[in-house]
Amino acid sequence: MQIFNFRQLAIRSALLLSLGLTVGSCDDAVNVEPSNSVSSDTGFTTKEDAAAGLLGAYDAVQSSDYYGLAFPTISDLIAGEITFRGTFTTTYGVIGQNQALPDNIQIGNSWNIIYNAINRVNYLLQETDKITDPTFTAKLSTQAQARALRAFHYMNLLALWGGTPQGYGYTGGLGVPLRLTPTTAIGTETAFIPRATEAEVAAAIRSDLDFAIANLATGTGNRITKSSALALRARFELRMRNYTDALTFAKQVPAVANFATTAPTGTTAPDALWSIFFSNTDQSQYAFYWYPSPGGRDEFNPGSTIAAAHPAGDLRLPINVVTAATSVTVSGAPYTLQPGTTRKYFRTTTRDDAFNVIRYAEVVLTVAEAAAQTGDLTTATTQLNIIRTRAGLAPTTATTAPDLIKDILLQRRLELAYEGVYWYDLRRTNTVQTALPTYTQTFRNLFPIPLREVSLTNGLIAQNPLY
Questions:
Q1: Closest by alpha carbon to 359, among 227, 211, 206?
Q2: How far apart are CA 424 and CA 431, in angstroms?
Q3: Where are the domains of the chain?
Q4: Which DSSP helix (H) or strand (E) runs through 148?
Q5: Where is the signal peptide (predicted)?
Q6: Is 82 left (phi over 0), alpha (psi -120 to 50) or beta?
Q7: pLDDT tens digits for range 175-212
Q8: pTM of the predicted model over 0.90
Q9: Domain spanning 6-216+444-456 has what CATH number?
Q10: What are phi and psi of 147, to 5 degrees?
Q11: What is the pLDDT of residues 1-22, one digit of tens each?
Q12: Beta bridge partners of 84
């Protein structure tokens, strides 16, 4: 598996304009063309341009406002899986209290980087269509990865800002602005557009993932493959409560070798289907925010309830919640884990902890849950027990669909801790208010649309209700 340093290699693919949803820049700023960028007037003309453009598309995911820190973190903060103890009280702090407002800077930054990422993909798709070089044999693969990325971005937009307070896939579900073509110049391309419906965005997500599944090979790594595209489609259908489809797609994901006999670990994730890799020169921010000085800000601690949620003997507890100084070996060198942190992100010196976007463990649990929801309790029990056994737990004692689903959801919470999943499980199962009874304002189950988007469009982009 080859690891690319996206941020260094992606510079060539930078666009003259990489606009998000709205435009607030002055003409002078827009008219400055960086010397190391590919002008939107010139476009991509070679397969090398396309390769660099794809790296640029992946690079956007690494942003500290996206999967370099913020997006999974705000998801886990509002779910109570992370306790905020730092200085960013007006951004992360209020999110952790479920009191975020439309002017929250971090929410606005995350919205903007996602639309920036979508624009990079849209431009790449537009420009690769024009390349006729017969040696560009990776054209379909390039476009398939790009479309899978776009689907992933819209999945995240819907997850945080869309649906209804009850969850996803309900009649009248709210969507987000749906842009499928690039914005490269001020004018008609950047005209404001209203929010699409949830159903319209969902259709675009499915179309993109279907294209990716049809045109990619199976595998794992730091690029999207057919395996991870199938897993993303299964995740989306589960979120939308389409359990038959979720089961169909999850069952198509090739099994990871030795998964059932490999114990869970926080330092590596051999079951990762798609990971975002970082390096000493291309750093993630997770360890920096989780760990105290030297090397960190000490902004985050495990939530107040996650430790107690682990059954006795659960091998994931010392991974998810470090309660005492613990010596581990990293790349042949000793390292001491600090109390009040996690073993999933701790490399404060190099800041190169990978972020696992989707893992085979999630796929196994998707099969289990979708099977239970569709009446196949034998399959549900078998798949659930794979996860329980890996975690050092006895087989489940659940015998009914509701009890199996309850256990499956607990295993998802513990298995995928701090990976930005739990909040969306609460939302899709309509259990936010049950799990977090102090969250009495159900409208806050949807995040606020950033104030700038509503203000600059004179309300064409409608705010989520009651904000």
A1: 227
A2: 10
A3: 6-216+444-456, 278-353
A4: helix 139-161
A5: 1-28
A6: beta
A7: 999 999 999 888 888 899 999 999 999 999 999 999 99
A8: yes
A9: 1.25.40.390
A10: -70, -35
A11: 334 444 433 333 333 334 333 3
A12: 300
